[in-house]
Amino acid sequence: MPTATTRTGMTARLLGSCRFPPSGTHLTCGVSGGADSLALLVLATAAGCRVTAVHVDHGLRPGSSAESEVVAAAAGRFGACFRAERAHVAPGPNLEARARAVRLAVLGEGAATGHTADDQAETMILNLMRGAGLDGLAGMRPGPRHPILALRRRDTVALCASEHLQPVTDPTNFDPVHRRNRVRHEVMPLLCEVAGRDLVPVLTRQGALLADEADLLDNMVIGADPTDARWLAGAPLPLARRSVRRWLRDEEGHPPAAAAVERVLAVAGGQFRACEVGDGLRVARTEGRLRTEPIT
Q1: In the prediction, which pLDDT does 73 show?
Q2: 81-86 contacts at long range (C-beta below 8 A, 24 or more positions apart)
Q3: Domains of the chain
Q4: What pLDDT score does 92 carry?
Q5: pTM of the entire structure?
Q6: Which residues of the chain have a pLDDT value below 50?
Q7: Under a CB-based contact definition with an 8 Å cutoff, are residues 132 and 140 in contact?
Q8: Cα distance between residue 38 and residue 132, in whole Å
Q9: Contact (Cβ atoms closer than 8 angstroms) between residue 10 and residue 159
Q10: Cβ contacts of residue 184 below 8 Å, gap of 6+?
């Protein structure tokens, strides 16, 4: 069987589309045992990174802890270190978002995840439904945190097959209770059918264009103070919105919904004294200054 020191032709070909850090760099990879994350592990080691594969068990499914053995075996085979973590997430509302937040907290800042172009397209659709504006439609940014973002899901499945890896199948990825699953299995196929073509490349190209525009607006508000209600109320609307979005990004870098941004601008303009912005927070104005505070 191939090892980390003998790249297969497919591994070498896919690496050309990846954005890993330089060879020798320490890189933590979130590896669930699915095809995408196993491909991330294979490609990261082939890129010469000093990889630690981390499996996070949320304890949401019977037998989920056994999946760490699949990841441990793959890590050992490809010369990566391995760490198993358990981070319990209680069932309830917003389960997917809460599990993601816990997982990212366990992995730590700068960890790589196995998101693909298909995930990017789904994320853009989900953000469109959230009203997340330009940042949401720009999607995830390629780079060391999302090094295989240019690959398709079929690429990761094919790579696992070529490396004789048996990915774990997570049944929750087919549960329609999760909105992303409905986008993946219902919305995207329907959109592609209506368009008469594969829309994933179209959406990812649009995301890249919008990311450039988002970066331009970011540069234009460097040094601006979004907590200064007078400046915010008097600034050009696109820049005021951009400044609020930068201020209120959550710990994962996700921007607030468009409606939340408009509510903050209304507070800055004196129409309201405070407003909710999501994640249990509100923005309040006192003596011309805005601040965030928890909702009690």
Answers
A1: 96
A2: 81/51, 81/52, 81/53, 82/52, 82/53, 82/54, 82/55, 83/52, 83/53, 83/54, 83/55, 84/54, 84/55, 84/57, 85/54, 85/55, 85/56, 85/57, 86/56, 86/57, 86/59
A3: 9-116+141-173 (3.40.50.620), 224-294 (no CATH)
A4: 67
A5: 0.84
A6: 1-6
A7: no
A8: 30
A9: yes
A10: 118, 122, 173
